Each structure stands twice: as structure tokens, then as C-alpha cells.
């Protein structure tokens, strides 16, 4: 099951916990929660999906570092949730791709580039 929680507080965990017996496993998609929320998800034997939105702040980065690798799913949420230069995680990105404004992007061009502000699977490097 693919689960999405955005600014739900304890409500998300309470609902999932009450219904956990109804599904075999799941991924909490685009996780942006606290260490405590991360631990509650792990305690329910679920996976945690991370993408650029998961690492906007330094606190987010520290939470992501604490997720056990075997419980982490790396996702793009294409075309959304890229890592932007304003995100705390941008300093950890080593691979850069040429980007073009949407109106200047030409998919038929021989020049490799991706649309600026659009996340693509190739950016998971």
C-alpha cells in the first residue's frame, strides 16, 4: 500500500495503526516527518519513501540519515519533489544535470538536458 501523509499530526499514525492488519506492507510516500514519526512508521513495519521534498531542511536531512537503509525507498515523485538549491540537502548532491526552462526544452534535440524544476528518475544518482 502506498500511504501519503501531509501535516496530519498523530491522526495519520492512529488511522494506520488501527488498520495495519488490513494490508501486508506499505510505503509512507514523500516522508517529511520527525524522528518520532519515523520511528512510529518503522514500529508498524512499514517502509519510508524519500525524495527532494523529504530533505528541505537540516532537520529533514538528519531524519533521513536516521532511516535504516533496508526500510528506505528512494523515489522521485516525478515530475515533482526535486532537490532545489534552496534545500538543505543540495550541498550533498554531487551529480548535476544540464537544465533548461520548459519553454526552451526540445526533446528532439541531440543535447541532453532535463526540464528545470522537474524531477526525473535519472536524478536519483
Walk me through the topology.
Layout: E1 2-4, H1 10-19, E2 27-29, H2 35-43, E3 47-50, H3 58-66, E4 72-74, E5 99-100, E6 114-115
Parallel strand pairs: 1-2, 2-3, 3-4, 5-6
What do these coordinates show?
- Helix content is 22%, strand content 14%.
- It has 125 residues and is an alpha/beta fold.
- It has one domain: TIM Barrel, CATH 3.20.20.140.
- The strands form 2 sheets. It has a 4-stranded parallel sheet, with helices on one face.
- β1, α1 and β2 form a beta-alpha-beta unit.
Compact overview of the structure:
This protein is α/β, with parallel strands linked by helices.
Supply the helix-strand structural class: alpha/beta
Q: How far apart lie the N and C ends?
A: 25 Å
* CATH superfamily heading: Metal-dependent hydrolases
Question: Ranges with pLDDT <50 over ≥5 residues?
Answer: none
* Principal-axes shape call: elongated
Q: Tell me the total number of β-strands.
A: 6
Spatial order of strands in the largest sheet: 1-2-3-4
On the 0 to 100 scale, the average pLDDT is 91
Strand content: 5-15%
DSSP helix fraction:
10-25%
The description of the largest β-sheet is: 4 strands, parallel
H and E order: EHEHEHEEE
Rg, rounded, reads: 17 Å
| CATH fold type | TIM Barrel
Number of helices: 3
Give the CATH level 1 class.
Alpha Beta
CATH architecture: Alpha-Beta Barrel
Amino acid at each position: 500500500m502506498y500511504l501519503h501523509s501531509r501535516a496530519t499530526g498523530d491522526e495519520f499514525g492512529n488511522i494506520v495503526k488501527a488498520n495495519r492488519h488490513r494490508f501486508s506492507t506499505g510505503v509512507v510516500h514523500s516522508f517529511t516527518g520527525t524522528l518520532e514519526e519515523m520511528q512510529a512508521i518503522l514500529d508498524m513495519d512499514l517502509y519510508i519513501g524519500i525524495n527532494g521534498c523529504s530533505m528541505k531542511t537540516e532537520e529533514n536531512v538528519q531524519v533521513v540519515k536516521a532511516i535504516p537503509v533496508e526500510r528506505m525507498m528512494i523515489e522521485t515523485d516525478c515530475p515533482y519533489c526535486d532537490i532545489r538549491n534552496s534545500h538543505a540537502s543540495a550541498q550533498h548532491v554531487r551529480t548535476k544535470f544540464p537544465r533548461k526552462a520548459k519553454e526552451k526544452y526540445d526533446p528532439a534535440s541531440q543535447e541532453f538536458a532535463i526540464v528545470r524544476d522537474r524531477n526525473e528518475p535519472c536524478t536519483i544518482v
